[in-house]
Amino acid sequence: DIMLIQSPDSLAVSLGERATINCKSSQSVLYSLNNQNYLAWYQQKPRQPPKLLIYWTSIRESGVPDRFSGSGSGTDFTLTINNLQAEDVAVYYCQQYSATPHTFGQGTKLEIK
Amino acid sequence: EVQVVESGGGLVQPGGSLRLSCTASGFSFSTYWMHWLRQGPGERLMWVSRISYNGGIITYADSVKGRFTISRDNAKKTLYLQMNSLRVDDTAVYYCAGASNGRWHWGQGTLVTVSS
């Protein structure tokens, strides 16, 4: 199974500042035939389902503010949230869909400092 | 508008069975791979099973293999998960998701509680 390790487990960032969450995969999730990294990012608020933010590593889902951006390739990926807003408080997960089982990171809890 | 709605959750005793359903609208169900995922209390998300658009390819997580069966009815735009021999550690919110070209559409989830 592909393991995803997120860092940090939690972080507190001031309003208007930048939050950076990392996701490291135990194997590459880059598919050479289409040169795509099969990596997504989700936001989950309490008692809500996960909300897709980013897919194919860096493509924002429709309706997601451009404050959210994704980057990386192979085994190392980053979710960046610029100009942090109060509504961004949530747990963030990375997911690989390169191979089954489609695994998730352990989650990163983002709070306001 | 994309909508994915799960149903069928509830309280069941260990060793019992439940059948979850998931109805979809707002996207071309018959061209999407469909997945079941779950999240236990305080736990990370876990992928459970998937089925290809025509049902020809089915895959399960090791922890549910031999106990759970995924199926779909494209005419009814409905996905199913038959869960047998349920265990306490199957307790979770179960989510249905449709996936195509990297985009996953998730439902709100249905709670399954396995307890005596």
Helix/strand order of chain B: EEEEEEEEEEE
Unreliable spans of chain A: none
The average pLDDT of chain A is 97
Q: How many alpha or pi helices of chain B?
A: 0
Question: What is the helical fraction of chain B, as a range of percent?
Answer: under 10%
Describe the overall structure.
The complex is a heterodimer of chains A (about 110) and B (about 120). Chain A is mostly beta strands. Helices cover about 0% and strands about 50% of the residues of chain A. Chain A is globular. Chain B has strands at about 5, 10, 20-25, 35-40, 45-50, 60, 70-75, 80-85, 90-100, 105, 110-115. Chain B has about 120 residues and is an all-beta fold. In chain B, strands 2, 4, 5, 6, 9, 10 and 11 form a seven-stranded mixed beta sheet that branches. In chain B, strands 1-3-8-7 form a four-stranded antiparallel beta sheet, with no helix packed on it. Chain B starts with a strand and ends with a strand. The chains are: A mainly beta (about 110), B mainly beta (about 120). The interface between A and B is medium-sized, with 23 and 19 residues.
What layout of secondary structure does this protein have?
The complex is a heterodimer of chains A (113) and B (116).
Chain A: E1 4-7, E2 10-13, E3 19-25, E4 30-31, E5 36-37, E6 39-44, E7 51-55, E8 59-60, E9 68-73, E10 76-81, E11 90-96, E12 108-112
Chain B: E1 3-7, E2 10-12, E3 18-25, E4 33-39, E5 45-51, E6 58-60, E7 68-73, E8 78-83, E9 92-100, E10 103-106, E11 110-114
Parallel strand pairs in B: 2-11
Antiparallel strand pairs in B: 1-3, 3-8, 4-5, 4-9, 5-6, 7-8, 9-10, 9-11
Q: Briefly, what is this?
A:
The complex is a heterodimer of chains A (113) and B (116). Chain A is mainly β and 113 residues long. Chain A contains no helices and 12 strands.
What attributes does this structure have?
heterodimer, A: 113 residues, six-stranded mixed β-sheet, four-stranded antiparallel β-sheet, B: 116 residues, mainly beta, seven-stranded mixed β-sheet, 11 strands, 54% strand
